[in-house]
Amino acid sequence: MRAANRLSASEAARLLQRRELSAEQLMRDCLAHIEAREPEVRAFVQLDAASALAQARALDAGPVRGPLHGLPLAVKDIFDTADLPTECGSPIFAGNRPRVDAAAVALCREAGAIVVGKTVTTELANMTAGITRNPFNPAHSPGGSSSGSAAAVADFMVPLSLGTQTAGSIIRPAACCGIVGIKPSFGRVPRAGVKPNADSMDTVGGFGRTVADAALLASVLTGDARLRETPLPESLRIGLAPGPDWAQAEDDVTDCWERTARALAAVAVRCEDAALPSDFADVAAVQSAIQAAETAQALAFEHLWHRARLSEALVALLDRGRNVDALTLAALRARTERWRREIDGLFERHDVLLAPSAVDEAPEGLQFTGDPVFCRPWSLLGLPCVHLPMGTGSSGLPVGLQLVGRLGDDHRLMAAAQWVMQRLG
Amino acid sequence: MRAANRLSASEAARLLQRRELSAEQLMRDCLAHIEAREPEVRAFVQLDAASALAQARALDAGPVRGPLHGLPLAVKDIFDTADLPTECGSPIFAGNRPRVDAAAVALCREAGAIVVGKTVTTELANMTAGITRNPFNPAHSPGGSSSGSAAAVADFMVPLSLGTQTAGSIIRPAACCGIVGIKPSFGRVPRAGVKPNADSMDTVGGFGRTVADAALLASVLTGDARLRETPLPESLRIGLAPGPDWAQAEDDVTDCWERTARALAAVAVRCEDAALPSDFADVAAVQSAIQAAETAQALAFEHLWHRARLSEALVALLDRGRNVDALTLAALRARTERWRREIDGLFERHDVLLAPSAVDEAPEGLQFTGDPVFCRPWSLLGLPCVHLPMGTGSSGLPVGLQLVGRLGDDHRLMAAAQWVMQRLG
Question: Fewest 10 Å CB contacts: which of A24, A112, A384, B370?
């Protein structure tokens, strides 16, 4: 029998609930794999194997707790945990011990998940990279900011992990690591106990190796069982939305796009260009300015009193954010609000939008986690997104694309994603 | 010379910036008054007089820091502070020491404010009362959840204080204590480091004894100097919005309403009924259900693992919130979104809406902080609100009304509030 850590979360959950697999066995296989691979991948900042095993045994001895019963879970280190430090990728938070779990962690634990450890995040979930390496090639970045969470799932260390996205911090590492990443609709998953960045965009989500796995996790996070129960559609009306920054895509991404669009056009009831707003050209700049302004607000204490312990890049971002004046910010928010209404209208014609996730395969080197430009529009609008892995590019690293759904239609988005993955084979 | 703690924040700020009043003198007067009155009022859970005085002396010795230079500030005990415990009115957080200041606290300190102490909050900023008494009559509640912050300002202990509102937790205690309370537009003040309740409504704001004082504080919280600089309008177009629950108002409130509406009709360019949405009758129930559902999400850890340490009332609310299913919640949010658009349209015809703040004078007894029913619509919609004190009712306790502004128009709202207060004398 293959090691249980190779099972998808959904397969493992089924076996665990039938008691055909013990939580202890699954945990042992995951921990053994972590022990073997962690020196190369470096996904974790905190690991508590003894506690995880004890929790697994306790679950085996009791009733089935919920849909995540017995599943090992890795948690990005910006989620508060009552039993493990929460250091946010910053020396300012070294040894920080929160009193309570983040709400999202509590919901996963209630559903039976076992927190194995905390994963590497970029500095305060911004752009300065952590130490995690891409499981496909350790000379490459895993993407960020949810770097360790994506790498841990991609490397079969754990079946599921939690991440957050403000610009592209779930979708992009999912793309770099060749797994499924889900950013639910804005406002549907509690953020209590998660270190804030930009309040109007920060979203809790996570990673799995299959669409069903990501949907399973998101169903618990949102408290919406429809995410794992919605039947697949008969067909799909797909809107193609390469977006205003499409020229930045490298060949591996454009090849993937053309291949996918062609394949979908052959099977979907409709597959055509989506009519994005006429003034959408600078959407990435609008998102970036609002993010900088809100992040400068949220990190005011760190910015003002711990400047020397922040990276230069983060200080520059916060300085930039402080300089966005109130009038400019109000105007950018007004445009965003109009875009939200216009794009919402698009979903009368399209069930989902197809969009690029990253400009290229994972960047070489560990200094730069990559450019979130293709994720900025959908993060700004708060729309649910799911990254779908679609093979590898010319360097042998993963490529893929994202589907974007209507606000609140996360269940339909996940059903559509399953439909697409079945059709693409 | 009268004691400096009697000065309004704006008066004191002017004297402090001209160095005609020292921060130390102001702090000494505030601390002396706190010492005299705190045994009766019980506004504070933490007070650090020595540190506050040291900070005052340091400010006196240095340059003027900003618009709040030298002003004593009281902070609701759900805001994280790096130098004082943050206990959230719950034994679960007894002795809790956060690593960093809440962003809103950091912004006030940057502007020169001195945190005197942490103020009593209801349990986790929900309905179970703390120990604070109404400064006007200690047998009555100060309102909640920002109980201590409102009482401390009303009693001249400090000129300014921070609070939060999810349903009515700023406007209502302001009404009970006869001071000005401001709840800025949703999403304009950073919430990082503030214990969350309902993510789509939680708003940071505060208290002062005059409109100018509340505007001064809010200008720092929002980073929008227009809040303290906008010239008063020539006249106002006022929409009367008693709302669908108006029948719950007691005589002291209806008397205040009629008196005020009559006085404003005589001086405003327009003063007429606002056309609220046709299906607005159950807006309070919609707000209440969304709040319960989101609070149950945000407090998942406390609800699941510390049930025995929560009040029965809070457990009941969280249980109720968990039972709001995803489909119902989605439908309630869709209605809310439509209401937001409809009410936004009203502001083409009205500069501000006049609405009641509380159903009656402050409740007798300390068990019940009062009903937020009149605040629920505006909290649900995210609109900026300011409570204006307007004398006393038949029990000699304060009464007043609130003005509600358009989303993002906080500066115009505060200018309108000044205009109204000048006209009402």
Answer: A24
Interface probe for A, chosen from B221, B301, B318 (most Cβ of A below 10 Å), is B301
Is pLDDT of B1 > 70? Answer: no
- Residue B304 has its nearest CB partner, among A92, A110, A300, at A110
Q: Please tell me the CATH superfamily of domain A4-229, with its number.
A: Amidase signature (AS) domain (3.90.1300.10)
- Residue that has been written with the tokens 């009482």 in this structure: B151
What are the beta bridge partners of residue B402? B355, B387
Token look-up 């919280």 returns B221
**CATH 3.90.1300.10: which residues of chain B?**
4-229, 238-280+331-424
Please state, in angstroms and rounded to a whole number, the distance separating the CA atoms of residues B367 and B364. Answer: 9
> Shortest Cα distance from A420 to chain B (angstroms)?
25
Alpha-carbon separation of residue A261 from A266, A268, B124, B276, B282 (angstroms): 9, 10, 50, 47, 47
Asked if the Cβ–Cβ distance from B92 to A82 is below 8 Å, we say: no
CATH of domain A237-280+332-424: 3.90.1300.10
User: CATH topology for B238-280+331-424?
Assistant: Amidase signature (AS) enzymes (3.90.1300)
Alpha carbon distance A147, A155 (integer Å): 12
Q: Would you call B92 an interface residue with chain A, using a CB distance cutoff of 8 Å? A: yes
Q: Give A409 to chain B, closest Cα distance, Å.
A: 9
pLDDT in tens, A358-371: 999 999 999 999 99
Chain segment A197-243, per-residue pLDDT in tens: 999 999 999 999 999 999 999 999 999 999 999 999 999 999 999 99
For residue B237, list its beta bridge partners: B270
